[in-house]
């Protein structure tokens, strides 16, 4: 083993057989292996079949793929043409599904519910597409969307795709400065926004941020504002227009042709912050992205025509793009869109919605599961969850303990939990169990989807032995992958293709066990080096979370005279547990017993909250700063993506020196 590799100390042994299903797209491992082999040996044939089965193309492609990671050059379905709005709406209406519900929208207030049919959604999209055109938006122009989780967001996205404009969604929790940077970078012509966001019973103003941002964004000539909360806002004459006014214009044509787009035309840009540097504008294309979105949604959630799919992410993240809007709508299934939060008005909100809408597949993040775990399992038994078939997780490694809690309390010990590994850059899920085929190991994303060549390599790019940690790379192109970093081809190459020439570098540490299962060990930037042993964060955190008193944990390295680095652990307790010195000792022993003395934390600090990004990921970068004694907010680098900056002060106050 080269010293650069990450060491694994975890030994999770539980194994669960997948339940049998009457209608599974991939019913068993033999079928999975068959798909995998086909995609491996005949990738062009496999992806051509998938693209034809899942989508309608207005012009067939000349060549399935033309890719070379050494350049890098990535082209899928070369010269093929299609339109995303047509694929997500028109063709379903033409096929007699006009009355079927496309989106069930649950607003933050319980009584705000809409069942929007494919026909209604199409009507709204056509109208808004014509409005965008009237505002001067055409093929290739960028439109920025800064909106709450309301149906109008999906309408605006699909309207862009209809006329060949590129959308760039900025999560509504971002600040004026973040919005400004993203609009400036992509030079958007139009911004669509709302007066405010409704969140946990409060109205959080948006339009003020918009005014601040747009003061420095000369490319934006119009701003369409949806009235969501009904608060007083400032409307700028000549620039700002109310959504309800523009859609009421009697001169808007009732039809709008779908622009035939080249498969490689830019569908959307989505900025991802990463831990350093300015946000990268991740570019996704039309044909490859939509194929991969439909493909992965269908297989991972085992979706059929009558399914009701609920992905709890915000559409401001890639998870919402792919698994609320594009994947489900391309398949013609019903997608649930939820404006609220899991804990308001009480921690049974998700489960109440499962019962109310008879949801069949449910997809959320470990951060939500751990928060609900902390509130106690009693909140999970108040509702009828019998409609559920598949549970999913995404965003961070799911600790085996959280996986078990999800499986037992929500899945009633019957449902498969699919832990899905992917990134903004990958467009869709790359590594995941298939719910009715893959034997499950809590905490493992299991195996790559057909057509995905994931490997673990050491610092020199050589394959690692079983259970040896290393760099997660993808060896071959897949249709849903990013096509570039907007305006920065050099960064695209350097970030993903330079370190391991000819391969895509994910930036995550991982190991593959003796069964070929993948275990993600955390971002490589977060690795801790204890006495020359490189330890990933995920295993140590999972060991802490497996103690009955712990709800959530984050570990970082702290400088240590002898060991080089020692482990500093931030621990949030479950609602029914109390802080004490005995508990600190017990937790140290627990980690020692679970994974070994090397991983036993030097310091344990109890905290009521952890610094998280607005998408729920723990920001270990900020914790490292706190650990080493920083107290000034300026020291923490870019904290604009931090969900609740006030936790920093609490953490500093509780720091152990
Ligand atoms: C990073 C990508 C994918 C959509 C949401 C996040 C981490 C994501 C898992 C998982 C372990 C995971 C990785 C990855 N991650 N899913 N199932 N197990 N880690 O998208 O913001 O681009 O983040 O999230 O570190 O690189 P993103």
Automatic annotation (TrEMBL):
EC top class named in words: ligase
What EC identifiers does the entry list? 6.2.1.1
Record-linked InterPro entries: Ac_CoA_lig, ACAS_N, AMP-bd_C, AMP-bd_C_sf, AMP-binding, AMP-binding_CS, AMP-dep_synth/lig_dom, ANL_N_sf
For the ligand (CoA), the binding residues are 199-202, 319, 531, 592
Q: Any idea where the Acetyl-coenzyme A synthetase N-terminal domain is?
A: 32-88
Q: Which cofactor does it need?
A: Mg(2+)
Presence of the UniProt keyword rRNA-binding in the record:
no
Q: What does this protein do?
A: Catalyzes the conversion of acetate into acetyl-CoA (AcCoA), an essential intermediate at the junction of anabolic and catabolic pathways. AcsA undergoes a two-step reaction. In the first half reaction, AcsA combines acetate with ATP to form acetyl-adenylate (AcAMP) intermediate. In the second half reaction, it can then transfer the acetyl group from AcAMP to the sulfhydryl group of CoA, forming the product AcCoA.
UniProt family annotation: Belongs to the ATP-dependent AMP-binding enzyme family.
Put simply, this protein is called Acetyl-coenzyme A synthetase
User: Which organism is this protein's natural source?
Assistant: Desulfomicrobium apsheronum
Organismal lineage: Bacteria, Pseudomonadati, Thermodesulfobacteriota, Desulfovibrionia, Desulfovibrionales
Q: Which gene encodes it?
A: acsA
